Amino acid sequence: MTFHISLIILLFGVGHSSFSNPMLLVEQQLFQYIDDHQDEFVQKLAEWVAVESDSLQPRLRAKVTEMIKTAAVSLRCLGADVTLNDTGIQQLPDGQNISLPPVILAKLGEDPLKPTVCFYGHVDVMPAKIQDGWKTPPFTLTEIDGNLYGRGATDNKGPVLAWINAVSTFKALNIDLPVNIKFLIEGMEEAQSIGLEGLLEKENQRFFSSVDYIVISDNTWLTTKKPALTYGTRGNACFSIEVEGGEKDLHSGGVGGIIHEPMSDLIALLDSLVNSSGHILIPGIYDDVAPLTEEEKQLYEPIEFDLKEYKTNIGVKKFLYDTKEEILLHLWRFPSLSIHGIEGAFYEPGIKTVIPSRVTGKFSIRQVPHMALSTVECQVKKYLEDVFSERKSPNKLTVTMQMGASPWVANIRDPQFEAAKKAIKKVFKQDPDMIRDGATIPIARMFQKITKKSVMMFPIGAVDDGEHSQKEKISRSNYINGTKVFASFLLEISKLHGELKLEASKLKIET
Ligand SMILES: *[C@@H]1O[C@H](CO)[C@@H](O)[C@H](O)[C@H]1NC(C)=O
Ligand SMILES: *[C@@H]1O[C@H](CO)[C@@H](O)[C@H](O)[C@H]1NC(C)=O
Ligand SMILES: *[C@@H]1O[C@H](CO)[C@@H](O)[C@H](O)[C@H]1NC(C)=O
Ligand SMILES: *[C@@H]1O[C@H](CO)[C@@H](O)[C@H](O)[C@H]1NC(C)=O
Questions:
Q1: Which of 273, 274, 279 to mutate to test the pocket of ligand 3 (most atoms within 8 A of CB)?
Q2: What separation in Å is there between the alpha carbon of 97 and the centre of ligand 1?
Q3: Whose CA is nearest to atom 6 of ligand 1?
Q4: pLDDT tens digits for 141-177?
Q5: Fold adopted by 5-233+407-510
Q6: Of all protein residues, whose CA lies closest to atom 5 belonging to ligand 4?
Q7: Which of 222, 342, 353, 372 has the most C-beta neighbours closer than 10 Å?
Q8: pTM over 0.85
Q9: What is the second-level CATH architecture of the domain 236-289+334-405?
Q10: CB neighbours (10 Å) of residue 5?
């Protein structure tokens, strides 16, 4: 045992000179190779961006499948064992059926002594046309001032390729891959990942059984310069409130003043949901919100976030809160309620003295750990029914939860977060911001819920990458440094994982 420990220390020792530290030496070789071959990596990205793998327009479905096949070829070149799994058909709104593109399940290495990292990514893209206002053709990767413009450059072809480049670098240098690696690559992410959940469930006991860590690189940093790791996203519960009066619209001259108007009921209901400080008024709604610990609070202080710039970007004059910390907390780890619209109301310009007979208000709650969707649903319905009954209105009220997606939060003390932090420090020479996302990214939660494995979001794109916009890009520097940081991550996770195993076995020996 002692021999084993000293061997590990020897291998990954604390020495700072690369001559005494083989891991540093390996890392330098990898980084050098990545720098030397960056034009090839950019060329590869150009080839991928050239495929119009738009998953939203059914007429382009063959392109998505072509893109999946191209990605499969790249993975086979790494020596991976690649299967293309059929996930069935998609029924279009017009009743037509089209087949879903296959999902790639690939694995490289099966050494039981190494940790297994599973990378998830997607190679489909949002629609793009030059007429939408692109300055460069969206499917021709174009480099301007160090930025690589093109649809899919950052979402998500660039990051997927950065992973593949990282692994290919080990192979090219004949360096033993320090982990077993699996890839799950899909082509329907922009269309709500249709078919993926079923596949995960089916493969949970097979493909995922040996997986230790799941990494997703499908979001961005919070700034343009400072790297970040994402450990949480909010959920979303979307509600509709329908208030129905009589069968037909009425005229305020004919009945105004003598009936309970559906629209007045609805406005009162909507107005009862949240006060002007942004506080949700539904009783009990905050009960299950995870308490903010001192340790968690401290994560917020070093985060780089320019309130003024953000205010300008979104075009508002004032926030509900004054400090960076309060704003980020309320954006990421406290629930919020937003009112979105009213269906059936008169909304055209001009005057029409109508009393609509049926109106539907829409609002949503971005919920956070540990709020359960079913509890939120009950609380919302009960409260709105109470508010409504106080109005003694004869109208009919129907409250429905139209859609519910759960939040996700990871344990940031998990080894893969530690490994990613170390890799980031090496490549970018700074510590990452530990961030969450105020929006809902169902994929992380889906992986966590089904596989019960540790999930981490490890972005390499910058906040101004413009995913889904007419200016989508990834900078050459982020793409190449992203490739380096993934290569470094594989070394770091293998080292940390080994240390943990060793400690676990030491404990076993001692007891
Ligand atoms: C995926 O493909 C592999 C190889 O063809 C097969 O063994 C496995 O059953 C497939 N999984 C699903 C869920 O179809
Ligand atoms: C589409 O598939 C569904 C389910 O398999 C089937 O019920 C339906 O008839 C199909 N529609 C067409 C137009 O083929
Ligand atoms: C909104 O509700 C919260 C909690 O009850 C309270 O602290 C706050 O003062 C309220 N804001 C307004 C404008 O009434
Ligand atoms: C990578 O990051 C380092 C440190 O922030 C920076 O100096 C360098 O220009 C970046 N780009 C590349 C391609 O290495």
A1: 279
A2: 22
A3: 85
A4: 999 999 999 999 999 999 999 999 999 999 999 999 9
A5: Aminopeptidase (3.40.630)
A6: 428
A7: 222
A8: yes
A9: 2-Layer Sandwich (3.30)
A10: 12
